[in-house]
């Protein structure tokens, strides 16, 4: 309880200041630092062909073995790189860089590539983990620090493999995946698009854009009233909006959005925050993540189209602030990943 009260005090300051402070950053960084090289508990998304493939998480994934599962480890790495970039005076800076260098070594990345190159693991972490990996690649490549440049080069072969997987897979996805969890196909293309644009990969951009339009352009009247499902950490409606906002021009997007989510244009729009009944339950605590992901998508919309959607800032702030006190409540079920989601919201808040 003492820890919870302390965290609430910190974040109540953040909320009134409307930005992320160095003190908050140090606190948020403590979570991925703690689990980045913590092997257990661990959930492996592994297919076993025979008994020779039964190995420890660290043997299987020497880069991304910490923080409970592969994708959480990936966005834990992203969180630390993001915080190092934003706060040059971050506490434990040298410790963080040392851990990143160990995990993201060329040798370890090659082991990750070897794992993904198994014929029976082509769908491993598709597309949630893929998406976060390209987010990490982008963060490293845009960080003007020698250690980040080195690690970006180390990671690049794995990112290139993931891009190849996207290009191969997307035309085969005949129907969108509209869930609020890992396999959501709209979320799985958002950071991939950002990296495709940054890296000027025209082929990758064209594949994402053409398939996003094929899957989503005819959608209308997204049922916000159906959200949330019991264990969502993504909003099917908001994730689709975030993807189409990226791939469509302004005029195209506004026309599309008036059909897809006309209620967002109303000054009275509101949507209730998601409530968590038991934060020791690893699935139910997903709903804190939903509040953060809704917030980052609303901020993203507001930042690009302030004239049309500045009235939504209050809704975004409410969602962000609602779950902030629960990030560090002593339960590993949320601690191993929620800091990343909170930081994504702050990244878009600006």
Written description of the protein model:
It is a single chain. Helix content is 60%, strand content 0%. The protein has helices spanning 2-17, 22-35, 57-60, 70-86, 93-103, 106-116, 128-141, 146-169, 187-198, 202-216, 236-247, 250-260, 286-304, 306-309, 313-323, 332-335, 338-349. α6 (106-116) packs parallel to α8 (146-169) and α7 runs parallel beside α9. It is globular. Mean pLDDT is 94; it is low at 1-17.
Write the layout of secondary structure elements.
Layout: H1 2-17, H2 22-35, H3 57-60, H4 70-86, H5 93-103, H6 106-116, H7 128-141, H8 146-169, H9 187-198, H10 202-216, H11 236-247, H12 250-260, H13 286-304, H14 306-309, H15 313-323, H16 332-335, H17 338-349
Helix pairs in contact: 2-4, 4-7, 4-17, 6-8, 7-8, 7-9, 9-10, 9-11, 10-11, 11-12, 11-13, 13-15, 13-17
Sequence of secondary-structure elements: HHHHHHHHHHHHHHHHH
Q: Helicity range of the residues?
A: 55-70%
pLDDT under 50 segments (min length 5)?
A: 1-17
What coarse outline follows from CA principal-axis ratios?
globular
How far apart are the first and last residues' alpha carbons, in Å?
31 Å
Structural class by helix and strand composition: mainly alpha
Mean pLDDT metric: 94
Quaternary structure type: single chain
């Amino acid at each position: 309880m003492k820890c919870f009260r302390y965290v609430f005090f910190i974040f109540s300051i953040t909320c009134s200041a409307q930005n992320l402070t160095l003190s908050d950053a140090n606190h948020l960084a403590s979570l991925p630092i703690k689990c980045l090289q913590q092997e257990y508990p661990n959930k492996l998304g592994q297919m076993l062909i025979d008994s020779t493939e039964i190995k420890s998480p660290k043997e299987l994934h020497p880069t991304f073995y910490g923080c409970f599962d592969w994708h959480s480890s990936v966005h834990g790495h992203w969180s630390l790189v993001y915080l190092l970039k934003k706060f040059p005076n971050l506490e434990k800076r040298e410790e963080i860089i040392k851990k990143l260098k160990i995990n993201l070594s060329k040798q370890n990345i090659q082991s990750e590539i070897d794992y993904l190159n198994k014929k029976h693991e082509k769908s491993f972490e598709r597309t949630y983990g893929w998406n976060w990996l390209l987010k990490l690649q982008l963060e490293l490549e845009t960080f003007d620090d020698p250690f980040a440049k080195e690690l970006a080069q180390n990671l690049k072969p794995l990112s290139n493999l993931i891009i190849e997987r996207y290009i191969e897979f997307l035309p085969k996805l005949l129907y969108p995946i509209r869930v609020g969890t890992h396999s959501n196909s709209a979320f799985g293309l958002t950071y991939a698009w950002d990296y495709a644009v940054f890296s000027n990969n025209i082929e990758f951009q064209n594949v994402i854009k053409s398939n996003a339009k094929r899957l989503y352009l005819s959608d209308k009247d997204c049922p916000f009233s159906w959200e949330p499902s019991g264990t969502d950490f993504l909003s099917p409606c908001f994730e689709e909006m975030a993807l189409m906002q990226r791939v469509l021009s302004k005029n195209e997007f506004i026309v599309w959005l008036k059909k897809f989510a006309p209620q967002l244009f109303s000054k009275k729009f509101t949507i209730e925050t998601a409530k968590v009944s038991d934060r020791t339950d690893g699935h139910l605590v997903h709903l804190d993540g939903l509040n953060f992901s809704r917030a980052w998508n609303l901020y993203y919309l507001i930042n690009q189209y302030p004239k049309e959607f500045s009235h939504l800032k209050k809704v975004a702030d409410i969602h962000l602030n609602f779950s902030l006190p629960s990030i560090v409540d002593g339960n590993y079920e949320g601690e191993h990943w929620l800091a990343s989601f909170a930081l994504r919201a702050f990244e878009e808040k600006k």
